[in-house]
């Protein structure tokens, strides 16, 4: 049940206040907390579907919250009134133990200064130099599958993208490092619990969950710090992202402090690895579910590449591979929810949102708006032909966010996804096993297929 109040004509009133915020029906003392913990993305999607204007209030315990799920309201939060919103206490509390003061957690002048320093190293001009390294690592993966094997594509893509990001950042390999893979999963599970739980205790509280998380975070941070220590004493620096960040200089000629460098490298590694793994797992899953789309991918890569490896220069002639990847990120965006908190009384969609309200920008539901994407649950890569993509409203498709907090690595992530979609499908076939045919999206900071994607992988 939803109590609906229509906003005044023209949105907010001249005073800066709008109509009373519509709220979802009462859920007792806990509000929607239990539903959010059991199935975060499902609960937010159900709330979004009942929101007439892309905005709906609800509660997490006694804390007020809002779900936002239209292009217009997303723009208000991320661009038009971006100064009215911060990352929020819950998100900061959840991410800071792992990411420190990196770009995913910092705000204000620190965020602006770090963004100016870091962003140029992930610009469209810089990312092509990483293409060959991505392809080389992926070639090693397909060689391991040369005899045909049953795998979990989620685990395999995690291993692949962890090796890729480690190569791009540190010029080394950590394939099959289960200690690090387990540590990052444990840390992400704690982060999601801290964001959605009514009773999430601070990290210092000696609960079993917190002790596991602290150990995982210490393992991961020490692992990354080791690369930086080695680099400080190296006679010659390799050409990789860590060297770029170590040499990056502020306007006054200074460089990052040791702690801030560690935080930014951790942020780059964590954001790039898990996001890319989930996006690629969803892409392979959807292609395996849609053989007609897979056949078109095969036709394109065979025509353009023949039997040779893909290069950055080939990507312009592989448009359907990119369409497939974009459509997979429409249906299952890795960053499916962008949390914010109102810093002061403000307005979203013509409704008053009080200071302190948690705001969940729900890209999962935003990407399913039928007025933007007709028959939204259908997998249709042709939504992203050049002509149809240009016709989409601004803010209707936000796999990397938008505005001042858009993902700095979006160009690198898009190139990586394009290359991997071409290469993995050029070399291999993917047939879903019975236990991998049906999965559900699970929000674990990023959106991943649960319980995994079991498939038989064989050479083409």
From TrEMBL:
Membrane-crossing residue ranges in chain numbering: none
InterPro entries xrefs: Cyt_P450 (IPR001128), Cyt_P450_E_grp-I (IPR002401), Cyt_P450_sf (IPR036396), Cytochrome_P450_monoxygenase (IPR050121)
Residues binding heme: 407
Listed SUPFAM superfamilies: Cytochrome P450
Keyword Iron recorded: yes
A Pfam family recorded for this sequence: p450
UniProt entry keywords in alphabetical sequence: Heme, Iron, Metal-binding
One annotated GO molecular function: heme binding
Domain of life, source organism: Bacteria
Cofactor: heme
Family in the record: Belongs to the cytochrome P450 family.
Descriptive protein name: Cytochrome P450
Species this protein is from: Streptomyces albus (strain ATCC 21838 / DSM 41398 / FERM P-419 / JCM 4703 / NBRC 107858)
Lineage: Bacteria, Bacillati, Actinomycetota, Actinomycetes, Kitasatosporales
